[in-house]
């Protein structure tokens, strides 16, 4: 763990969480705590010694961190030894994640708490606008799972089982800067002459005056700077007044300091009042003029305030969602088509993502996605168009793959993607697009070498595909055989390639710098971008289990013979079969059949409902681990990666979505006699949840808490 100090040194400390207090020690041998943070509103006296092992405490070593841009001071011992011991307590308390760009490290979180006057001496506990005694403590741990463990333990010490939460979040995209060199401010803030073409710019994001995140530095390209930076801020402190996006020009020499050329300031209360502009959001956001007048910045954002009640509030909705998976095939399609209704593409993705995280959190994600995909297969008559539309099944699969495949994608593609990004030589093989003097065969050999590396890396990765995804792919392959027969196995394999290639590998190669792929640090240069396009197109063609046709003559002539000689299509079929075949270990065929049947068996709702007592869980994605797994597999892939799921937050979002769809569902019930009883029951569930929510809100207001309405805004 990492904690940020004013002196900027790195050190090692020891922490213990006991009941409602976090104790921090200089080392594991010192009994007296250096710092104690009381996580409840009632202040408690500081004990004379740290709690021992008999307290069922959570312990871990912590590291100190430098502050952004901080200087390197003296040894930490000079500040720690003999320093006043500090007790931190108070009702104003929050725990939040911290963007990786702030410190350049991963897995950081922050505790904000009221403190005594001694905090400012020892730690980099910046004063808040509303109180000089409200301080921040930054911690970093070694893994996502460990961070989740700490946050959940700390929040459990803060909150009671009946707590009402408000979670404010912001998804921010800082996409581009357009510099107006003819503006009056340009003469003062921008260099002229030779230095004008080499300007580097970066952007800092502040809440009030607190730095939250930053972009990479990018070069000015004829007055345009493209960052395409994506940030997600969750659990934003409600006392923040505004957000500032500050643009800096780097000094052109070691002696010249960086210069702020302008900023945009947005009060948070105005973000809550903005309305969705579909055209601008789809085009990458809106343009905002810098206050200095020197240019404008293209920004897209989504600001939400969520009101989240305790899990028992949503008990009836919880049971309803589980029951949908026990319905017959036609009913499942009707249910989820109706729930999605006439939503926008963004709303469909968000609803699908919330359902995916909910079922992931309760351990039923494979059942949910196998059910959805099987239902879509049996509702489609043409195998060539399966999973090609924006249905609930495709949206849900997209969302799940974004969650579970991030580390798998990077383990498979990072090395070759970076080499493609760094390539400055031409790989163009279309004679109509080649520059004068280029050698076609040299270009072809360079392109072929990258294609071979990509396909080799993919084909060797089958053992590390997340096991849950393999279970779902196996369900798709079996369902395709049940629907269309197993005479042509290519039908089932191309249905699978429509996910793992069309929506993962090919998409990542087409936009390697885009979120959520982020295979490369920046937008590729022109030749590199063309290389990514050619490789992506080739890989997707192979994933469709075909070679190039006459329509793509320049590709057909160069590639088809080579791919036939290398038996690439046979290797592709083998890979798609492997990623859709669950490895069960040394079991008999009868045991395997029994295990497979469990994936599609009806859900025992009575056994799952007790999970409502767990508000948040950490879900891991172990790989399939076939018998021939490579010894060079990265340890993270072998162990399985994971994600935190806040079950009550997902249920709150699903409930909010259903409330908004109520008029549409009412019309659907009138026109569909089969759905009418189900929708009538759903309306009763919505009413029950609303009644429970109002009870929680009334209780909170009687205790003096200010209750906000959930809202969302896009710009």
Automatic annotation (TrEMBL):
Residues 55-64 have a biased composition (Polar residues). It comes from the Eukaryota. InterPro entries: PH-like_dom_sf, PH_domain, Ras_GTPase, RasGAP_dom, Rho_GTPase_activation_prot. Residues 45-54, 65-79 have a biased composition (Low complexity). Keywords: GTPase activation. CDD domains: RasGAP_GAP1_like. The lineage of its organism: Eukaryota, Filasterea, Capsaspora. This is Ras-GAP domain-containing protein. Residues 1-159 form the PH domain. GO terms for molecular function: GTPase activator activity. Pfam families: RasGAP. Residues 45-91 are annotated as: Disordered. Residues 347-544 form the Ras-GAP domain. It comes from Capsaspora owczarzaki (strain ATCC 30864).
């Amino acid at each position: 763990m990492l904690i940020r100090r004013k002196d900027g040194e790195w050190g090692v400390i020891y922490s213990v969480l006991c009941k409602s207090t976090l104790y921090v020690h200089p080392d594991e041998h010192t009994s007296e705590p250096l710092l104690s943070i009381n996580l409840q509103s009632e202040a408690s006296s500081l004990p004379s010694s740290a709690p021992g092992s008999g307290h069922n405490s959570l312990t871990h070593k912590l590291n100190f961190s430098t502050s952004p841009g901080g200087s390197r001071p003296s040894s930490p011992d000079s500040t720690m030894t003999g320093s006043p011991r500090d007790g931190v307590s108070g009702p104003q308390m929050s725990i939040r994640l911290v963007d990786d760009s702030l410190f350049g490290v991963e897995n950081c979180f922050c505790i904000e708490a009221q403190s005594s006057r001694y905090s400012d001496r020892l730690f980099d506990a910046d004063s808040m606008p509303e109180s000089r005694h409200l301080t921040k403590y930054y911690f970093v741990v070694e893994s996502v799972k460990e961070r989740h463990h700490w946050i959940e333990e700390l929040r459990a010490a803060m909150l009671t089982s009946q707590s009402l939460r408000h979670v404010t979040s912001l998804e921010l995209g800082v996409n581009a800067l357009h510099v107006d060199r003819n503006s009056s401010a340009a003469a003062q803030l921008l260099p002229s002459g030779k230095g004008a073409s080499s300007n580097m710019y970066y952007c800092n994001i502040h809440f009030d005056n607190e730095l939250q995140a930053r972009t990479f530095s990018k070069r000015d390209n004829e007055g345009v700077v493209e960052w395409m930076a994506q940030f997600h801020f969750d659990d934003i402190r409600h006392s923040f007044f505004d957000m500032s996006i500050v643009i800096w020009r780097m000094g052109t020499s070691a002696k010249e300091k960086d210069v702020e050329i302008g900023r945009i300031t947005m009060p948070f209360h105005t973000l809550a009042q903005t309305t969705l502009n579909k055209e601008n959001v789809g085009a990458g956001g809106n343009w905002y003029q810098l206050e200095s007048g020197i240019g404008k910045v293209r920004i897209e954002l989504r600001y939400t305030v969520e009101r989240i009640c305790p899990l028992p509030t949503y008990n009836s909705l919880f049971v309803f969602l589980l029951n949908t998976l026990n319905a017959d095939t036609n009913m499942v399609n009707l249910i989820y088509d109706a729930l999605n209704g006439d939503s926008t593409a963004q709303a469909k993705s968000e609803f699908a993502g919330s359902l995916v995280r909910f079922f992931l959190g309760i351990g039923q994600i494979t059942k949910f996605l196998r059910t959805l995909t099987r239902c879509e297969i049996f509702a489609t008559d043409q195998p060539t168009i399966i999973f090609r539309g924006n249905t609930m099944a495709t949206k849900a699969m997209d969302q799940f793959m974004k969650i579970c495949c991030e580390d798998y994608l990077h383990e498979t593609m990072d090395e070759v993607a970076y080499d493609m990004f760094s390539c400055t030589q031409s790989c163009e093989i279309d004679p109509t697009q080649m520059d004068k003097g280029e050698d076609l065969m040299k270009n072809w050999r360079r392109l072929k070498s990258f294609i071979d590396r990509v396909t080799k890396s993919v084909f060797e990765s089958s053992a590390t595909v997340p096991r849950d995804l393999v279970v779902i792919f196996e369900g798709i392959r079996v369902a395709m055989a049940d629907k269309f027969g197993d005479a042509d196995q290519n039908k089932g394999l191309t249905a699978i390639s429509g996910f793992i290639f069309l929506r993962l590998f090919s998409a990542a190669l087409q936009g390697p710098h885009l979120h959520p792929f982020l295979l490369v640090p920046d937008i590729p240069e022109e030749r590199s971008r063309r290389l990514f396009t050619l490789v992506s197109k080739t890989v997707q063609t192979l994933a469709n289990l075909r070679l190039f046709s006459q329509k793509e003559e320049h590709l057909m002539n160069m590639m088809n013979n080579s791919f036939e000689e290398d038996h690439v299509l046979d290797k592709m079929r083998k890979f798609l079969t492997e990623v859709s075949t669950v490895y069960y270990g040394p079991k008999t065929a009868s045991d395997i059949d029994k295990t497979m049947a469990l994936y599609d068996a009806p859900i025992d709702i009575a056994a799952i409902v007790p999970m409502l007592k767990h508000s948040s869980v950490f879900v891991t994605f172990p790989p399939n681990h076939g018998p021939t797994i490579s010894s060079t597999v990265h340890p993270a892939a072998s162990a399985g990666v994971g994600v935190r799921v806040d079950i009550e937050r997902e249920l709150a979002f699903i409930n909010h979505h259903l409330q908004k769809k109520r008029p549409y569902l009412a019309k659907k019930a009138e026109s569909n006699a089969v759905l009418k009883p189900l929708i009538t029951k759903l309306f009763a569930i919505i009413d029950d949840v609303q009644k429970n929510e109002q009870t929680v809100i009334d209780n909170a207001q009687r205790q003096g808490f200010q209750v906000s309405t959930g809202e969302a805004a896009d710009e």
